[in-house]
Every structure is written in C-alpha cells, then in structure tokens.
Amino acid sequence: MKKFLNKAKDTFNDHQASSSFPFQSQPQAPLSQASLPSSIRPPTVTDLLRYRYHNGTNLGSIFVLEKWLHGSMFPKSSTGSSELDAVSASLRESGLDATRQKWENHWRNALTDQDLQWLVNTAKCTSIRLPIGYFTLGPGYCRGTPFEQAGEVYAGAWNAVKDLIGRARAYGIGVLIDMHALPGGGNKDAHSGSGTGKAEFWGSRRNMDLAKHALVFIAQEVSRGGPLEGVIGIQLVNEAAWQAKGMYSWYDEVINEIARVDGSIPIYVSDAWDLNKALEWANKRHCLKGAPPNPVVIDTHKYYTFDEKHKSKSPPEIIGSIGGELGELDGKSGSIADRGEGQVVIGEWSCVLDGKTWARVRSEEKDGLERQFGQAQSKKWQERAGGSYFWTFKMDWMDGGGWGFKQQVKAGNVSPPPALTLSAQDVRSRTQHAQSQRQSMADNGRRSHEDYWTKTSPGKKFEHHLFSEGWDVGFSDAQRFFSMRADGALGPRAGDGGDKIGCVEIWTKKRLLESGNRGEFLWEWEQGFRSGGGAFYHCVGV
Hints:
Keywords: Cell wall biogenesis/degradation, Glycosidase, Hydrolase
Number of helices: 17
Helix content: 40-55%
Distance between the termini: 38 Å
InterPro entries: GH, Glyco_hydro_5, Glycosyl_hydrolase_5
Structural class: alpha/beta
Pfam family, one: Cellulase
Region (Disordered): 13-38, 424-456
Order of helices and strands: HHEHHEHEHEHEHEHHEHHEHHHHH
Radius of gyration: 24 Å
Strand order of the largest sheet: 1-2-3-4-5-6-7-8
Domain Glycoside hydrolase family: 101-352
Strand content: 5-15%
C-alpha cells in the first residue's frame, strides 16, 4: 500500500506542479512525532532578503584580490597573483601605513552610491555575493598563518565589510558573505588567498578549526543585527577542491556550531564540483529527524570556457545544452516532509566562451550568440535555482566583457526575473486581482486534491484539512513577498518590482517546521503550501 500511495502522490504532484513553486513529493516512512502549536507569522523583511530569488552579482577581488581583475593593486615586485602576494610585495616596497591606506581605499571605494543606484534600478539586483578571507576579520585571525606579517593591514577590514553591507541594505540589497579564502586554501587556485598551488585546508585540523572559529564569529556578528541585518547567508567555503578530504564532516561540524549561535542563518556550502553528491548529503539532513534548523543551500558554479568538453563545442551546441542543466535536482528537491532540502544557487556564472569555441562560428555572429547564451542561462537559473550571481561586477578594465556584469546587463545579455521589472502600481493591481480570486482558487485546489485521492485510494483515511491549511499559508506568503517592496518595506531607495520566493525549498522547510504539523499526513500540508504559492504566481502572471 505504501508503494502505491507514493506512486499516486507522484502522479498527483505531476498534475499539480507549477514551475514557480515546484514540488515532487515522494514521502517515505511517516514521521511519528506529535504535532506542535503553530508559530507561523507573516513573512518579515529579513525573510524577504534571505528567501526571495537572488538576482545577483559577485563583488570579487575587493577583499580577496585577484591579479587578473585588479592588477593595479599588485606592485611591480609581486611575483604571484594572490592576495598574499600583493600585500607582501606592497609591505616590502611601501611599508605598513601606505599599504594599509591603499588597501582601505580599495575596500571603501568598491561600491559608490551611483553603483548601488545602477544595481537597483537598472540591473534589478537583489543581492551581492561578497568574497572575503579569514584575514579580513583582522590581525587576530592572521596570527600563526602566512598572513601574520600583514595582519595589521587588515585591522579595519571587517568594519569595511560591515559598512558595505549596511550601505547595500539601504538600497534593499542583501549580501551573502562568502568565505572565499580559507587558511591553507580550500582549493589550489590563487583566489583562495595564497598562491601555493595547494589545497592545504582539507585534512589540517588547525586550519579547519581556525576557519570554524572565524565563521562562528561572523554568525555571532550577524545575529546581533545592526549593520549586518542585510546578510542573507554565510558561505563556508568557495569552490572546495574535488573530493576534498573530510569536507562534509566539517560542514556538519560548522553548521552545528552556527546553529548554537543562531538557527535561522542560512548556510551556503560548496558542491566541490559534484552537485549530485552534495544533494545526496543535503537530503540526508532531515530537519524533523534531529538536523540543525539552519537552512542549507548548495552553491554550484557554471562555466563553459575552461573544460575541453566545452572548448570542443560550438556556441550553438553549448547554448542548446543549457536547458538540461540542474537535472541533478530531479528527485532530490520538492519534498521536505521526507528528506533534507535540495536547495541550489548558482554562485558564479558568466557569458565567457573559449576562443576555440568562438572560432567555430563567424565573427559577425558573436554578439547575437552571446546574447542567446546569457539569456538561456538567465532563464534556466530562474527556473530551477534559488538565485544566481554573475561573476563579476568590478575590475580595473570596466565594463568587463564576458566577465562583466555591467557590460552584460547593458548589452541585454542577462535578464532579471520578469517580476522585478514591474512598476509598484502594477504589483499592487495584480495583488488585488489575486486576492479577489483567492477563495475560488482555494476551493478549486481543495476539490481537486480531495477528488484525486478519493478516486485513487477509495476508503483510505486522509487529513485533507492539512492541504487547505498549507494552501492558505503558501498563498499568503507568495502574496506578501510579491507586494512587500511596493509597500515600502525595503525603504525608499529599493526600487520597484515584485519579489518571488526563489529559495522555495528552504522556505518550505522553515514554514513546515513553524506549522507544528508532524506525522503521517505532513505531506498533505506541504502539497497544499506549494500549491497555494503556485496558484498566486499563476494568477499574477509571474
């Protein structure tokens, strides 16, 4: 009977599913916990910042330098291309005071008010992924590391980070703090902070403990609010090395520690170039079976320029393959009632293709194909991910070509979600229309649900009222997210548009926990919740 019910649930989900609020419920063994009182409240501004679709850009090479982006920060005597190479050479050539001033100017001038206005009003940017290093937290975190001699340069770095986050928040933009550079290096590349060519973080208890302390410190700072109320999450590591030793155990360890500080902070983790394995790990972390409550998001990066498998293809071939991306999510997302959340964001992507790829088409075709390439990616990430962050916004050579967010937005090669392009009046009128249709849509949803299960499992006892309860919450949440910006909740400089619940899996997890519902028919509440959200988006046309 259980197998039959599971198959029937899948069939019902396929019938009901909406691409804007998807579900693919495949319930396993029923949970036996007793239900609890509901603690659901209307979504807050913090919820909006953390759980909406993140239409974003990276702000790379500001707190973790990369020579190819900011060669102006590297003295002539610098022999490498990492942050450590640059700061060490500057200290030798110019001394502490001049180096510290140069670095602080670089941090403080990274985003102007004009930049923030452009990000909000033109690019429709909702968040920034901000790479930092453990050294960014100041001299105390540099002791006993290769950055010890340069530690005083970073005495004001953390305050600069906080100021940047506060200024972005004033424009309605959230910030994902990305621990890009770990002690020893989470990968072999220079953007891990030091140019050793080794990933010495993994397997080093000392390095892993230092990074854990740094991340817990950031969580403590975020939990206090203030200038960091705009933080949408903390990323533990960037581009972890393939099959990194002890990575998932370390993830669990750090998440447990952060949960003790604040169980609401979203935690982002690298997939280490193996999304399927990362999703399998995440699915095992069931929030109703003892896992910490923190939302967990998997960061995967999508580039089509480095591997030979891409260099050997033409631009149309690569563009044609985009539609099949993120297939790893099939069967691993869409049901929080029986497994951990399968939430993914695209932490880095670009419009760059290798010269060998471009050589396969005529030069006059390039602009049009680059537009198709960027548009195909924009569309796919919005369909299946909780957000995407273009690499990158700032470099010495603005506007950055295929790597430049500004150039690609100007060229129309990347597009925001359509809801973000609506006027405030349009958002209000669409919301009013949806509200007028709410009861009839709720009745139709409940009727369809009940009719399906009466036909599929005659005589079987269900708790269909849970579907209706979930439907009401899902509809209300989608409506609140959509209208909050137009109602002024993000402040006068946040721009127009309507936000969607982009991080559907972790939001569903949060609401499922808050609902207090447990037991065999928890899946009915979840199906109703997802159906209600999907009904709202269908009604407002986004």
